[in-house]
## 1
Amino acid sequence: MDIVEILFIAALVTMLGWALAVAISRGRALERLRDATGAPDTADVERRVREALEQADDARWHAEQTAHDTGYLTELLMAGVIRLRDDLTVESANGAAHVMLERRPGTMVGRSALEAFVDARIEGIARAAMETGSASGELTVRSADGPTVTVRARRSPVSGVWLVLEDVSELRRLQRIRAEFIDNLSHELRTPLTTISLLAETAARDAESASPRLRDRISKIEVETGHLTQMVNELLDLSRIESGTAQLLLDDVDVIRVVRSTAERLRLFAERQGLRIALDLPAEVSPVRGDEDRLGQVLINLLHNAVKFSPNGGTIVVGVREAADEITVWVRDPGIGVPRADLTRIFERFYKVDRARVRGRGGTGLGLSIARHVVESHGGRIWAESEEGQGSTFSFTIPIAPKRRDIEPGVASTANGGAQI
């Protein structure tokens, strides 16, 4: 046997070894595939693998179509939509987002949040959403004259963060116009109303010897002028509160003192209506951090409503109770009650319960709305419980003031100019 035959045999043996190894490997692969697919034989394995590959292709195609549809949908929206990855780099951003942030189309994708937005405030909102699940804020882009944008961020259940941007510049401009109009109108109306009120008061004094009919008409002029003055004052007050120009002068407030002084102020008004005001107060409660005049205003509105809508001879009860971290103040009246359908809306501005039920007792519909704004600006809650014909109970809560050892009460109340409502 010469060297050529020996080499040929060696090569043949090597090839057979490789073939055997491949066969063994293929057999093991088939065994694993059979185990994974549950197929009884090789033919079924191949069929099921082919089906799995087809399903993977279908899933990939559907995912691509969904991505295209999502992108198309976001482009149709007027709101800016931005998706950030977990490292806060921009994965996608629609055209509206580029316009609101004054960036050229396509320049934000792939950049970090700070590079893309050129605004640390938006990046801060995104980071807060990553940590807490959601965050929001309102800011002016680029400069004081730039667009005003609200940013709402929510962490994706899969990964990353979604940002939704909405341009509210026009809304804020209209709100400013409305506030300025109400402010100007209120000031213009105050002068003639004050004059009419003084003239009616003078006429009432001069008409002591006049006929009862004339005195009654003068009295009605005084009453209606008072209603108009109250409406103007409440309009101006609500406008300032909603625009954020009204400030809270914060201090430690004794709620029991506020309740006693407010009840005393309205006691004569209640007695004229044949009503009695009773107090249900503990010996003392913890102080709350708030504006004493504003909290008194809330209680005046609630007590005034209770007197207006209660029959003669009843008793209105004002109470205070302390819980773990808040003080609750409540006003219970024996009045006509509030229909269940109206309970959720009575704190809206200008909303009134069916006029037919309260003929002759209507107001501006602003008192409860002002009360809600004041209470919420203190971090509290306000609500009503009522049954028609059974009276009503209006309650509100104010958080207890944190204990301060190093600051005397009242020292920091106006140091920073007060807090805005």
## 2
Amino acid sequence: MPYLSIENLHASYGKTPVLAGIGFSVEKGEIVSLIGPSGSGKSTLLRVLVGLNKPTSGTVSLGGRAIDYTNRRALREARDRFAIVFQQYNLFQNMTALRNVAIAPVKVKGRNAAEVEKEAVTLLEKVGLGDKLNAYPDELSGGQQQRVAIARALALRPDILLLDEVTSALDPELVKEVLDSVSLLAREGMTMLIVSHEMAFVRQVSKKVVFMDEGRMVEIGPPGEILDRPKTGRAREFMAKILRH
């Protein structure tokens, strides 16, 4: 049984369809990357999974159990199992890196503050920020802020980590430090869904790649197949453009 199963998922913004029949599965510990042109529905799919946008039809199952996105309790339980990191870091500017990571598990989940702070230190060390525990966001580079955001998501102990173009707002020289942190999580067996335009990174960490266009899943397969030998004309056109640069 797949760990995460998405079946015939549809979603709309008002009357505008943005997801049209998306369906694929993710195994525990697997990394699946979503690629495709802007506006293809990649980020919307992540937002639907975590309940920020409601599906209009279709099924999302986690651990064999369907998520009822119309039920508050079920939605809360789902959000306990997913954590999402956005393009923008959205850190609390008046809090240190350590406080940014520790606040949600204490305030939202009611966990012991001392235990959470100890775990937050470990997480910040894991993403290479052990020397920045008491730094405020405006004292950190964009790459460092994004790594704090990743540590903050991990502090929620999610089953699945959702990463939405986490390097797109960064200067090129800062991209590698964030991707290195994500690669470490991949080696540790974290289940992840990643939206990315960093094709070398997608190739390196992904077990499967989903190519999306206009809200539809056009192709799915191993990275070597999707990036190097796409079957559809639309995927070949996209790869020819993006891999040329």
